[in-house]
Amino acid sequence: MRKKIAAGNWKMNTTLQEGMQLASEVVNMASDEVKSEVQVILIPPFPHLTSINKLVESKNGIYVGAQNCHQEASGAFTGEVSAEILASSGIDFVVIGHSERREYFSESGDLLAAKTNAVLKNRMTPIFCCGEKLEVREQNGHFDLVGTQIKEGLFHLTAAELSKVVIAYEPVWAIGTGVTASTDQAQEMHAHIRQVLAENYDQDLADGISILYGGSVKPDNSRELFACPDVDGGLVGGASLKSRDFVDIAKSFQ
Ligand code: PEP
Predict the structure, then answer these.
(1) Is the CB of 99 within 6 Å of ligand 1?
(2) Is 37 among the catalytic positions?
């Protein structure tokens, strides 16, 4: 059974006080309202991680993730945070290769493969992001590009390692724009990703991996997106900054 996941990427938003308030609202509402089989993941800025982790520690089904990590375990990398440090802080998930990291920080396929290794080595779950820009879709290159991103970042892994990864398909043209992929667009790409996984590993492995959709997910579109057979949840940006909206999204699994 694939995990159903609602993950909230806060990006570079919230002061510590605002973040604590948001997290406690989500924890209180989600504990009462969200089905127990749904994993709710809060992904705040680095400085908030340990405080928010303490807040959610004893709550079943609510987890904390980081937005990025460095690929090395330690060393002279001023300003960076390693997977080892995150694991030692009790963090369970790490987002790898968000399109903003690929675009603004020039993160390459090789680098993302190394970061994925670091996350897995430290027994956390990578949420590996992929997705095409608008011009690539307009030239009908989106299936090839997403296939290449997945191969570059993940296909050096053994089947056992890959089975621990969560994939997030986030078309860049839908992130923060208010334009959401249609259910047909989301479903066909998720099915494509699963097919690429099956061709390169096997069908059982492909069927077991959670694939999240990201890109302007809101309470009024999450139900139809999450009802797609190959969509296992959402990586949510803007709407995760409003506790009511985010919990409503987490409640919208069938
Ligand atoms: C994201 O940050 O991964 C994202 C999908 O953002 P938004 O929901 O705001 O489009």
Answers:
(1) no
(2) no
For residues 212-231, average pLDDT: 97
The protein residue whose alpha carbon is closest to atom 2 in ligand 1 is 237
Q: How many folded domains does the chain comprise?
A: 1
- Report residue 60 CA to chain centroid gap: 19
pLDDT tens digits, 84-102: 999 999 999 999 999 999 9
Q: The domain spanning residue 133 has which CATH number?
A: 3.20.20.70
Closest CA to 167 of 189, 142, 140: 189
Catalytic member of 100, 107, 132, 170: 170
Tell me the CA–centroid distance for residue 152 and ligand 1, in Å.
23
Domain that holds residue 234: 4-250
Which atom of ligand 1 lies closest to the CA of 11? 2
